[in-house]
Design a protein that fits this description.
Blueprint: E1 6-10, H1 15-25, E2 30-37, H2 46-49, H3 61-69, E3 73-77, H4 79-87, H5 100-117, E4 122-124, H6 140-148, E5 154-155, H7 167-170, H8 188-196, H9 215-228, H10 235-240, E6 245-250, E7 253-257, H11 261-268, E8 275-279, E9 287-291, H12 295-307, E10 317-322, E11 329-333
Helix pairs in contact: 5-6
The chain binds iron/sulfur cluster (SF4).
């Protein structure tokens, strides 16, 4: 009897990786999914906390995909190891701070390690030749296979027919003829294949896989690095970059202003670790201060924070200031006029 081969599929939660796993699964291969949590993932964060998004279903798309396919999913936290990918990408960044080529290599490398530890035979990804400018080019697909250590145990079922046969194809673990030849940026072939499999309701993330491709987000990340004088971050830093309005009135501190109820609730969870302000005389947001501040800075921060509360047109707003690790106190300040807030303060 022929041995059942085992493959580990990178599952992002999007359509491509879902289809790639499905194509191989349908050939009788035992498939399990693997998903890496980097901290920069788009889904399941701001989507879950913002009030305006409340009507949207809250689901982890990678788990949803695994459920649709009927395969187990291994979610692996790589937040610490992934820092080096973001901070020192050997192949540089894409149009924002997205180190896509290093990122793909990192993920395939970790999937390969998992494959070896668990005695699996090969790795599946949803990559499509020519779909992404950095990581899915004819010259970079082999680079990922080589640098990750996966070599020709890396199968890309959606474009395999356009690439040299890999070990699973040569050994007959999968039938190359039943693999695909998707090429380019069009999503139509994927949508047609999804329809063929009767797959609907799959995720269509507007912002790609992660926040590192989002210019608004990466402006704030670059600002964080600049203000600290080096490229480092903790998980809390990158979570907070996803939330609120960020203003930097001075190089050594910035304000994070909740934009709505869901964000204020989220920021509440951080208030003990940050100096924070809120209006006592008018309703308004919770405002965190990131950085070291003296009394002049706090006065400016209070005037700025007052600008974002209901008392923005009042002569004075009573604000509460709670220094990090200290007791709250009150001050009354005139809110800053919008003309007094230079555009460059907004990140
Ligand atoms: S978009 Fe983000 S998660 Fe996707 S390959 Fe690029 S860096 Fe990695």
């Amino acid at each position: 009897m022929q041995k059942t081969r085992k493959a580990v599929a990178l599952i992002s939660g999007g359509l491509d990786s879902m289809l790639a796993a499905k194509v191989v699964l349908d050939q009788g291969v035992h498939v399990e999914g693997i998903n890496f949590y980097t901290g920069f993932c788009v889904e399941g964060h701001t989507h879950a906390i913002r009030k305006q998004d409340r009507a949207k279903p809250k689901r982890n798309n990678a788990l949803w995909v695994a459920e649709q396919l009927g395969v187990p999913l291994h979610i692996i936290d790589v937040v610490e190891e992934y820092k080096d990918v973001v901070i020192n990408p050997k192949h540089g960044y894409g149009s924002n701070l997205n180190p896509c080529l290093d990122c793909k290599g990192f993920m395939v490398h970790h999937a390969h390690r998992w494959m070896e530890e668990n005695a699996y035979d090969f790795i599946i990804t949803g990559e499509v030749l020519g779909q992404r400018p950095m990581s899915q080019r004819r010259d970079t697909l082999p680079l990922i296979a080589r640098e990750s250590g996966a070599g020709d145990r890396l199968l890309r079922p959606l474009c395999a027919k356009l690439l040299p046969p890999t070990l699973p194809e040569r050994e007959g673990w999968v039938d190359r003829e039943q693999l695909l030849a998707f090429n380019g940026r069009s999503r139509k072939p994927q949508m047609a294949l999804a329809a063929h499999y009767d797959l609907t309701d799959y995720a269509q993330p507007a912002g790609g896989c992660c926040f590192l491709t989002d210019p608004n987000y990466t402006t704030k990340l670059a600002d964080l690095w600049q203000s600290r004088g080096d490229k480092r971050y903790e998980l809390d830093d990158i979570m907070l970059l996803k939330v609120g309005r960020h203003l930097r009135p001075r190089p050594h501190f910035k304000l994070i202003v909740g934009r709505e109820e869901g964000e204020n609730n989220f920021l509440e969870g951080y208030r003990r670790r940050y100096t924070h302000l809120r209006s006592l005389s008018h309703s308004g947001p919770l405002v965190l201060i990131d950085g070291e501040t003296d009394n002049d800075d706090l006065h400016l921060a209070a005037r700025l924070a007052a600008r974002f509360c209901q008392g923005r047109s009042a002569a004075a707003v009573r604000m509460s200031i709670t220094p990090r690790g200290g007791a709250p106190y009150e001050i009354e300040v005139p809110p800053l006029n919008s003309d007094d807030i230079p555009q460059e303060w907004y990140l």
